[in-house]
Amino acid sequence: GVNDLFFPYGDISAERVSLFRVYDRWGELVHEARDFDLGDPVGGWNGMLKGKVMNPGVFAYVVEVDFVDGVKGKFKGDVSLLK
What we know:
- There is one protein chain.
- By secondary structure, this protein is mainly beta.
- It is built from no helices and seven strands.
- The strands form two sheets. Strands 1, 2, 3, 6 and 7 form a five-stranded antiparallel sheet that branches. Strands 4-5 form a two-stranded antiparallel ribbon.
- β4 and β5 form a beta hairpin.
- It is globular, with a radius of gyration of 13 Å.
- The two termini are 12 Å apart.
């Protein structure tokens, strides 16, 4: 029940997430969500692919954010999936 979803969050300067993608170490897309509020778990990744729990590992992510001043930002990093 703790950290069951991975999703982008931020402060009030960010308006919406226009794109959120998670990739495995081979570059396969394992999650994609578009157009949701920053900090809203509706766009989050639950560590699954096609209904099956993924093996533990490191996954890359890309987030495109629309800020309230009209600027668009792109952020990337990695997250570890643990069981």
